[in-house]
Amino acid sequence: MAKDSSKIWSAFSLVSALGAAALAKKAADATWKVTTGRKPPENPADPDVEIWEAVAWAVTSGVLVGLARMLAQRRAASYYARSTGHLPPELRRDGE
């Protein structure tokens, strides 16, 4: 049963993280357009993109995507715990 529970949690966690990352990417794109008046850089590693713009885009998109994934996984873990009565196998502390 624990192995099935682990597989269910892994799939649930992955889907929630991917969905949150996709939404955060859209939010980052929209935020960039509003604040700069331009589309975000397609490839920040391109030498034609100014360094300040590449760094700002990396920070903005990285923070938004990272936060969204973390919050989605926390919410998924909370839902899992409410549904099963225990934390997902990967989140349990020793002895729980």
Automatic annotation (TrEMBL):
Transmembrane portions of the chain: 54-72
Protein name: DUF4235 domain-containing protein
Database matches in InterPro entries: DUF4235
UniProtKB keywords: Membrane, Transmembrane, Transmembrane helix
Xref: Pfam families: DUF4235
Membrane as UniProt keyword: yes
